[in-house]
Design a protein that fits this description.
The chain is 9% helix and 38% strand. It contains 6 helices and 37 strands. Strand 12 and strand 13 form a beta hairpin. The N terminus and C terminus are likely disordered. It binds copper (II) ion.
Length: 599
């Protein structure tokens, strides 16, 4: 359970890795700063190592190479073949400062996958050996389509084939909100299979918040949560993997695998052990920083098919001294699991959501860990929460970091102990910050009078599927499935828009909630189900419960290009719950359309 085995050597290597990252990036720091940064980098690397993470190491040319490949590993005693960046679960932690050029080379070392039986419907999972990269939440050039930043509606999505690579130079804006972001694949049709077998990692953007004395003094511990979905290998009796045959679909109701027959228009039962799933898995592990903390298996009772059988495993232990303040950065990198989070017996000093810190910590009272509801902070898939915890003054106790049980999705999600805080040792009364430097990029906040356009997007599901019979279930945005070559939404740099994201009731395609996520620009969450949210609640993904409307506002700040928004339940996204949008350049006074547009 601990990472102490080779910890000393690992810490040294980790510190060296962070140093390389800094030198590999173009940054105009003063020499005095360099010494200070080196000291804080070494402390940061030691913190990473203490929770089982490692920093990314750029090559001699300054590129961070993310090599995607199969990896055989053991998860809580189970032999598993996963997909991993650089052979680690999760991928290495990338650190970058505001204003730097972040250079990532994606290398595809995945083996060939046979998609010859694919019928060409892009909302049927396919080409599981092709990949690309998304730096989630970062306000950088749109990077899903080729070439980067293209506004061409017909631009194809980047698809790196086995043996190939793709270079991503990301200029991080000088005013980029400093905080926790992450990277994962986003090739439509293979996103979930790759992400739910391990391909994800954290990105930390450094900036003014890191210089707040009370924050600088705190240990900085990222907590990367992922799920790993597995089925028995078709060829190796002792191996678990997720390599569904083309068109093979796992049926949660029934616990068997079908393949759709287009002549009879019926799914045909097979003897395959695994298939693509939009529900549960034969076996699923939930990981924190690569360590399994919870296990789920398919429920064999047909009346309880939506309730996987859960087993709590030994969670990660984090030692804190009484009165110590630690900065936690938690990522819900799960493919589909909504997580209401509670830290037992402690107030949560929430600093930031999705990388956007507030002007002061939001103090969230402690609450019972055996309840339901949204917890101290609700993390939809892809959301991040950064918070301070000040350890209880009394030593000798252990406090759980929990995901509360929730039933807002197709599958029931049981309560899980993610990690434990062990309070022990000498007391230290560390201070908490009163104020935080507000990231300027999204301020001043959008005023209602500035809104140029309002749009409404309804996320819905139909079961059994009508337009996607191969998958057997339809996931739709405004009754449409994803079209790679359509641009149904066009926006402009400088414009502020208000979007109403709707999940209907059970008579209108609402069977569960969906997390809305948009690339490039953050948005301010204005209201959820008519309940106003605190001003400055800036996020890049928001949970939209069933039968609820969420109102968001955003301004297209800088970047032009073709991009996407979608549901961040990844099996929904991969099977159609996504749309493109194109950001065009700002209108100038000389533009012949400018006059009519603004009347
Ligand atoms: Cu969804």
């Amino acid at each position: 359970m601990t990472h102490d085995l080779s910890r000393r050597g690992f810490v040294a290597a980790a510190a060296a890795g962070v140093e390389l990252v800094r030198r590999g990036l173009a940054r105009g720091a003063m020499p005095d700063d360099d010494a200070a940064f080196a000291a804080s980098d070494a402390a940061f690397a030691e913190g990473l190592a203490s929770v089982g993470l490692q920093p990314a190491r750029p090559n001699a040319a300054g590129w961070i190479v993310l090599d995607a490949r199969f990896k055989e590993t053991t998860l809580a005693g189970t032999r598993a073949r996963v997909r991993a960046y650089c052979g680690t679960l999760p991928g290495p932690v990338i650190t970058v400062r505001q204003g730097e050029l972040l250079r990532i080379r994606l290398q595809n070392s995945l083996p060939h996958y046979d998609s010859s039986a694919w019928d060409g419907n892009m909302n049927v999972p396919h080409h599981l050996d092709q990949t690309n990269l998304h730096v989630h939440g970062m306000d950088v050039i749109p990077h899903l389509f080729q070439p980067l930043g293209t506004p061409n509606p017909l631009a194809p999505m980047i698809a790196v084939k086995p043996g190939g690579h793709q270079d991503y130079p990301f200029q991080v804006p000088n005013d980029h909100p400093p905080g926790l972001y992450w990277y994962h694949p986003h090739h439509h049709g293979s996103t979930v299979v790759q992400a739910v077998t391990g391909m994800a990692g954290a990105i930390i953007v450094r900036g003014p918040i890191d210089d707040v004395p009370e924050i600088k003094a705190a240990r900085d511990l990222p907590l990367v949560i992922q799920d790993i979905g597995l089925f028995p290998s078709e060829t190796d009796a002792t191996l678990w993997t997720y390599e569904p045959k083309q068109n093979a679909i796992w049926q949660t109701f029934g616990g068997y695998v079908t393949i759709y027959d287009p002549t009879t228009k019926q799914p045909v039962k097979t003897t395959l052990k695994g298939g693509f799933t939009t529900g549960d898995y034969a076996l699923r592990y939930f990981l924190i920083n690569g360590q399994p903390f919870f296990k789920e298996t398919h429920n064999p009772d047909p009346n309880k098919a939506q309730q996987p059988v859960g087993t709590q495993l030994a969670p990660l232990q984090i030692h804190m001294q009484p009165g110590e303040v630690v900065r936690f950065r938690m990522l819900n990198g799960n493919s589909d699991n909504l997580m209401p989070i509670v830290v037992e017996g402690h107030e949560m000093y929430l600093l930031a959501l999705d990388g956007n810190n507030f002007g002061a910590p939001r103090v969230i009272p402690s609450m019972p860990v055996d309840g339901t509801g949204n917890g101290q902070v609700l993390l939809a898939p892809s959301n991040r929460a950064e918070f301070l915890i000040k350890a209880n003054a009394t030593p000798g106790k252990t406090y759980r970091i929990m995901q509360l049980a929730q039933s807002q999705q197709f599958l029931q999600s049981e309560a899980k102990v993610i990690a434990e805080i062990v309070v022990a040792g000498a007391s230290k009364d560390m201070a908490l910050p009163k104020a935080l430097p507000l990231p300027k990029r999204n301020y001043p906040l959008i005023q209602p009078g500035e809104i140029k356009r309002r749009r409404r997007f309804q996320f819905s599901g139909i079961f059994p599927g009508v337009v996607n019979p191969v998958v057997g279930i339809d996931f739709l945005v405004n009754n449409m499935q994803y079209d790679e070559f359509a641009a149904p939404n066009v926006t402009r740099v400088g414009d502020a828009e208000e979007w109403h994201i709707v999940v209907g009731d059970m008579n209108h395609g609402g069977t569960e909630g969906h997390p809305f996520h948009i690339h490039v620009n953050n948005f301010e969450v204005i209201s959820i189900g008519g309940v106003a949210q605190p001003p400055g609640t800036l996020q890049d993904a928001v949970w939209v419960p069933e039968n609820t409307e969420v109102v968001i506002r955003m301004r297209f700040l800088q970047w032009t290009g073709k991009s996407v928004f979608h549901c961040h339940i990844l099996p929904h996204e991969d099977t159609g719950m996504m749309q493109n949008f194109v950001i065009l350049p700002r209108l100038t006074a000389a533009d012949p359309h400018a006059a009519s547009r603004h009347t």
